Amino acid sequence: MKKFEEISDALDKFTAKKNEAYGDAYSKNYEAFGATYAAIEVFNKVNRIVTLTKNNLSEANNESLLDSYVDLRNYAEFAIQHMLPNVSDEDKAKYGL
After folding, report:
1. What is the pLDDT of residues 12-44, one digit of tens each?
2. Residue 67 exposed, middle or buried by CB count within 10 Å (0-12, 13-18, 19+)
């Protein structure tokens, strides 16, 4: 089993490439719609994961269960990134940020 750090590093590199290819669309949408946008992206991805697992599917419409979890991780990380300017130093310190 891969170590957490290896997975995190690999996903960081993958996400940076994907974000560049999409022209930082997440940031543009977050700036336009705020935290609600982040919540909707997470909600939609969780629903996708639930649907795939409930129906015992490994993928649907060319999106695998792994793809969905990677996207969920990325959406959460993007949301955190955009929230940080408004988070207290105490809360940031709690997570080493």
Report:
1. 999 999 888 988 899 999 999 999 999 999 999
2. middle
Nearest to 15 by CA among 97, 96, 87, 80: 80
Three-state DSSP state, 1: coil
* Helical packing angle, 65-83 and 25-33, nearest 10°: 50
Q: Round the CA-based radius of gyration of the chain to a whole number and report it.
A: 15
Partners of residue 60 on adjacent β-strands? 63
The answer to whether 37 touches 29, Cβ cutoff 8 Å, is yes
| Max Cα distance, the chain (Å) | 43
